[in-house]
Amino acid sequence: MKSYFLRRLLLIPPTLVGITLLVFTITRFVPGGPLDRMLQEAARGAEQGGKRASSSQAQGGLSEEQLEELEEQFGLNKNVLVAYGQWLGIVPREVRISKGEFGGQGEEKIAGTLDAATTAEVVLRGDGRAVHVKRRGESVESAVFAETGKAVAVEAWKVRYETQQDRQDRFKRRNTGNQTAPDYSPRAVIYQTRVSGLLQGDLGRSTVYNDPVHEMIFSRMPIAVYFGLLTAFITYAVCLPLGVLKALKHRTFIDSATSVLIFLGYSIPGFALGAILLVHLGARMNLFPLFGLTSADFDQLSNFNKLKDLAHHTVLPLLCYIIGSFAGLTMMTKNNLMDNLAADYVRTAVAKGASFRKAVFGHAFRNSMIPIATSLGDLVTVFIGGSMLIETVFDIQGFGLLQYQSVIARDVPVIMGTLTIAAFLMLIGHVISDFIVAMVDPRIKFE
Q1: CATH numbers and ranges of domains, the chain
Q2: pLDDT for 53-94, tens place per residue?
Q3: Are the CB atoms for 93 and 196 separated by under 8 Å?
Q4: Residue 284 backbone dihedrals phi, psi, to 5 degrees
Q5: Rounded to 10 degrees, what is the CA torsion of 212, 218, 224, 228?
Q6: Dist CA 244 CA 337 (whole Å)
Q7: Beta bridge partners of 144
Q8: Are 178 and 172 in contact (CB under 8 A)?
Q9: What is the pLDDT of residues 348-365, one digit of tens each?
Q10: Could you tell me how far CA 446 lies from the centroid of its own chain?
């Protein structure tokens, strides 16, 4: 059994890589990415400002240099595997990228002292120092600081040479409908490298809010845990006894009446129920607040009033969370218990003098819990639980709403961050479920 669980744990990293690579690839090719959104915002800003795109502006009122900076910021200038490796933290990122053309207008400053056709002057971003890059053919021969003559490699700067064809290929990838690329001068690109990604605990920054993704996720986790634990506790506390009662009172009025109520609640989506409750109990009867998890003056309340205010805001969304899970768990408990009550070992126990109560709770009930135990491992996902629709209806800033907003805004770093944590906890939950089943039922041997 130890070898089985060890294999399951070792399979988690490659499975997680497969999931994240698939989603990362999809986000690269679907329309409406962060670059498209910024182009649209720039175009709207240009229209509102009464500007018109000039010949020096490429798309959406942005110059070609600005477009290249956006591509480099989001890793769109790299192929999918390289960009994924950078996000994962196994491929270095290029940072502080600075560029200078050979034979360009920027060389007029050094013309007469250096050959502009073979030497480019690059001003380092965030540094301000000038670097003279000399080429030989299509390779960099030397790159030194203009003032000291010291090689830039001493300070961990790297240099690469971009040909005219390289720049034209990049233009065509950015403008798929335009196959005629302008003429470019070759240029030198100076940059530094930094390894920072998932393996280093860096999930990047939101392209919408510019906040660290891990801070955005961790700030939503308390709400997910709060509703997740409450939902799990109430669901198991009510459904298990109710399932036992329905099994013992099978085909009676209690069984029929509770079945009608359970499946009536199951047939109503949680978000739809939330909208109905908000209209009638919130807006019309003014019994519950309409949005949020706390009041605006929550920080000024006493501890008792804070608890009261939180409970007042919790009632309606909590009811929507638990309404859909009642039917499944209740009927599973009932059906499993009825199957075990009809088993030979229960009849044998009663025939040997065991009371019906002992036969039910001492024998049948434990075996009936084995299928239910398989879902206990999923409780680990309470850290990222929540329903985006319910949280949207009640305007609760939970994990589900964060996922929904990131997808709508095409916020790729947040999408990847929430997906990674959710997938990891899901895989861990499956392993825990197998372990719980093995502990509950000694007959099961994982090999």
Answers
A1: 94-194 (no CATH), 213-440 (1.10.3720.10)
A2: 444 445 556 778 888 888 888 788 888 999 999 999 999 999
A3: yes
A4: -80, -50
A5: 140
A6: 7
A7: 132, 151
A8: yes
A9: 888 888 887 888 888 788
A10: 32
